[in-house]
Specification:
Length: 359
């Protein structure tokens, strides 16, 4: 009997200790991440790293991303970069959601079952309806690559570079129904160097935005972020509309600085293009070429402008295009359709003495 009594006491003590250890480890707060392109992966990676820390109070409970689409030259149907990364990190596929619209009722029902305390968006690519925004306990926050209220919209980095801004930044803001108009929790500003292109700047801003997010997560979860967030001044808002493919064409009637900024802004997609005429004086033949303009700089010398204003010259490794207002644009790198990008020297040598005329 004594042995049986001791055994019962041992079991009770151990059960009590086990129960105590379970209750002393609070459930981690579920966080849902929404993002799609490669730049979003930077944010998701930061969230996974932070959630795996010993003292982390949250976990990435699910991913929402754009549906699989045709990508790359093979045109294979592939999951978004965010979905691919989440799978590589071991997130179960049934926790990766790709609804056509974020307002789909079946998707929203599943999201409610996950009981997220917070949703984080970074270049997700879909409009979030009120029914979605009402689900997470602490709301939804967005990493937006501009200094809000400037450049609200789909292409903030591209439009900022196109405008030739000398300063930009990244904002962490609450998401509301009005486009990019929520109160700003935090922001960081950066000086914009003259040669930086959109893909590079976009990557930098989302990297810094990830740091802002991780820094501010405790205040978002404890609710203090809502009280300190600064409402945007709508009277100072500017828009950054989506880029249309036909904006890619360069017009050399414009001044060189406008064209240089456009090349930087549209690098990656849709790129910038120009039409030129190749003239062979010996045979009298003319051949129209379409060039993708990859890298440029503003010409600091006006010597090259003497003579014919319609002809492209070559100077110190660059193709010099006369532009509006007596300015000139140096083109350092070009690409012919279906070919690899080459530097201006290689392109000029390939002309073999033929003349080049801008159109």
């Amino acid at each position: 009997m004594n042995s049986a009594l001791m055994l019962r006491r041992f079991i009770c003590v151990n059960a009590s200790a086990t129960l105590s250890s379970v209750t002393s480890s609070p459930r981690k707060k579920p966080l849902i991440f929404l993002g799609s392109p490669q730049v979003s992966v930077t944010v998701l990676e930061a969230l996974f790293d932070a959630s795996s820390a010993p003292n982390s109070s949250f976990e990435v409970a699910g991913i929402v991303t754009q549906p699989p689409a045709r990508r790359d030259r093979g045109r294979k149907v592939l999951p978004s970069p965010v979905a691919q990364y989440a799978l590589e990190k071991g997130l179960p596929s049934d926790l990766i959601f790709s609804p056509e619209k974020a307002g789909d009722e079946a998707f929203l029902s599943t999201l409610r079952d996950l009981q997220p305390e917070l949703c984080v968006t970074a270049a997700y690519g879909n409009i979030l309806p009120t029914k979605f925004l009402n689900i997470p306990l602490h709301g939804t926050v967005n990493i937006h690559p501009s200094l809000l209220p400037l450049y609200r919209g789909a292409a903030p980095v591209q439009r900022a570079l196109q405008d030739g801004v000398e300063e930009t930044g990244v904002s962490l803001a609450f998401t509301v129904r009005k486009l990019d108009a929520g109160a700003v929790i935090a922001s960081t500003s950066f000086q914009v160097v003259d040669q930086i292109k959109a893909p590079e700047l976009l990557s930098l801003l989302f990297s810094e935005g990830s740091k802002l997010l991780i820094r501010e997560l405790p205040s978002i979860f404890d609710g203090s972020a809502k009280s300190k967030a600064v409402p945007q001044d709508d009277s100072k808002a500017t828009l950054a509309p989506k880029i249309a493919p036909d904006e890619a064409w360069l017009s050399f009637d414009q001044e060189a600085f406008i064209l240089h900024n456009k090349v930087r802004a549209f690098a990656g997609w849709p790129g910038t293009r120009a039409k030129v005429l190749v003239l062979d004086d010996k045979s009298g033949q003319q051949n129209e070429l379409e060039l993708k303009i990859i890298t440029t700089r503003i010409c600091q010398s006006t010597e090259v402008l003497n003579g014919e204003q319609d002809y492209v010259t070559f100077k110190k490794g660059s193709l010099v295009f006369p532009c509006g207002g007596g300015t000139a644009l140096e083109v350092l790198e070009v690409q012919l359709p279906g070919k690899k990008a080459i530097d201006a020297t290689a392109f000029w040598n390939g002309l073999r003495g033929q003349k080049l005329k801008k159109l």
